[in-house]
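Q: Protein A?
A:
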Amino acid sequence: MSETPEQRAARFAPNPGTRNCNPEGISFWALVAEDFRTNDSDLLSQGFWTLFWHRFGNWRMSVRPKLLRAPLSLIYRIMFKMCEWVAGMMLPYTVRVGRRVRLDHFGGMILVAHTIGDDVILRQNTTLGIARTSENQSRPIIGAGADIGAGAVIVGAIEIGAGARIGANAVVTRDVPEGATAAGIPARVVGKTT
């Protein structure tokens, strides 16, 4: 059964950033340890540190009341900027990020998606975000197990299906089915895994 425009709009509704959206069923420190292992157990990995501050930004939203959260919010904002300046990675806490996400390599990553699923690999110079300034809440959903090539641009309220592969430098502005491979400018499906 196909999705109505209202159902699709509800699925792509932006995260207001008012609560902890870290994955459920795992503690903050267990999640950080998992991110560390996923990013080669490298304490100096820019991908690990960007994920750490993303997870911290979400975790702080569970601290109540707001007055107690204020110093944590200040720390988050400073470290979010440091990730941009030092690692060249932008991953706001309002992006819902799953488990075992790998930010491979570093630099030029603008990761303003609606959702990044479990077991996703993102490589350098990747852009996830809006397609037009008039649609500033239209962000992509990246399905579990997606493999995103270097320099890929994925924009708009579109969905990259579970296990999909996006080729290097592809510009994706339409949904990519589960298990499909998309490449080119504009990206087209060029294959499908079995």
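Q: Protein B?
A:
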Amino acid sequence: MIGKPHWFNRRKYSGWGLMPKTWEGWAYIGVGAGMVALIQTLPIDPQLKFYSYLGIGALFLFDILHIMAGIKMDEREAKIEAMAERNASWTMVATVALTIVYVAQVDVDISNQELLPILIIPLLVGVVAKSLSNLYLQNKDL
């Protein structure tokens, strides 16, 4: 597609996705941000802006997924990645379950409140679990 896998590394310590490792990777991100900024400044119909954002988002999503699939890892890196993802998934599931139990026990009416903390806290816990797993497994003999 547009981006190349050798422009990026996988994220190890700051979540999921890609991290640029060459100037081309940074330029790729800059072009994407520039396209969004350009659409934002154009005096066009809000509905057309929405569909433009949707199109650009879909294009970059498919391209990023293509790039991520093309990043080559050796056997050890693949094993570390799998274990870190597993640990992050289990901690997110546990956090969501504990949040649901808490909301049920306290009998909180969440219909009028924002659900953002319920969504963000498990993601943050997952990022921490993935980061710690990567740090621990980096130095371990696998």
